[in-house]
Design goal:
The chain is mainly alpha-helical and 159 residues long. Helices cover 64% and strands 4% of the residues.
């Protein structure tokens, strides 16, 4: 009788991949874009992602899926993500107009704070709080997927 075992080649490739991942360099959370093309490409990405999420939300609302609570949550999450992309777009544009002297940097030269001298500084500060939109959007999508999976919310309390 033949036993189904993973192919040795796949096991070797898995080990090589694991070794590569363990030797990876640092992953920095902040990415700067080279002027001016980098920021343009990034802004185009926000526009396309926002339009995709808006289209996704509209397609859900116009389909027969809109009667299910899980898909309503998914559409809400997509709509909030579309708003988040617009919000982040504005923050990036405002960042261009904040003078470099208004940023307070740490010893490594990383921008840590912004001194609020002008209305543009204040708007930049407000629009940098994009997590106030992004986190609820991801939560809606998580709850939608959880509902689609059929896993009750009470199972979280048991862990």
């Amino acid at each position: 009788m033949r036993v189904n075992r993973p192919i040795p080649l796949l096991q070797a490739l898995g080990l090589i991949l694991l070794a590569q991942l363990s030797c990876a360099g640092p992953a920095h959370a902040i990415q700067s874009h080279g002027p001016p093309e980098g920021i343009y490409v990034h802004l185009i990405g926000h526009v396309l992602y926002g339009l995709a999420m808006l289209g996704f939300a509209i397609r859900i609302r116009l389909s027969h899926l809109a009667v299910r609570k899980s898909w309503q949550l998914m559409a809400l999450g997509a709509l909030i993500l579309a708003l988040w992309n617009g919000w982040a777009f504005i923050a990036h544009v405002l960042a261009i107009h904040v003078p470099a002297t208004d940023f307070i940097t740490n010893k490594q030269g990383v921008r840590m704070w912004v001194a609020l001298h002008t209305p543009v500084d204040w708007l930049y500060y407000i629009f940098k709080m994009d997590h106030l939109l992004c986190v609820p959007a991801i939560l809606c999508i998580y709850l939608a997927l959880r509902r689609m999976n059929g896993t009750p919310l009470t199972s979280l309390k048991k862990r």
